[in-house]
Predict the structure.
Amino acid sequence: MIRRLLFVLLAFSVSFAAYADGYTKPKVRAITAFVRLDRASYGEQIAAALQVLREAQGDFQKQGYEVQTIRIVTQPLPELVDSLSETQALAFLKNLDDASARENFVPNVGPVMSRDTDDPRNVRLMEKALSTLPHLATSTIIAGEDGIHWKVIAESAALVHYVTGTAPTARAISTSRPPRW
């Protein structure tokens, strides 16, 4: 009983100290929209998503939260650039990166690889893109219900190694699970 009381008092004093020291609300890391982009109308799609994201950002800020970023996550990269040549794909990704700089959002082009059977040429494409495009982000899925994706891990490591040796700025590559499309 005394132990429990001491624990409760300790927890209360720690939380009271946080408020006494000018406790502020936690920062919101990112507000994210998941958008399946159509290359023919992606500008309009991004504008519509940004309108919703900025409204949400404003609502959070009115409640006293600091929102660090807003971001748009697309369908997986292989679907996004399907049927494009490497030159066309890089040009599209540059346009997306340029739009993000103008509109102040983080574009994430979804996972570049999700399974060991995925084409590693998409990783080579992202090596080139991430080395020159400062706002673009991507991810890989290194495991799933089917187990560990060893080829994806090897390709992810190669991508990180390449980008950290060539990119003007360091970037984090997420290995979190994206939404199911």
Remarks:
- The helical segments are 2-20, 42-62, 77-80, 86-103, 121-132, 150-166.
- The domain at 2-166 is CATH 3.20.70.20 (Anaerobic Ribonucleotide-triphosphate Reductase Large Chain).
- The longest helix spans residues 42-62.
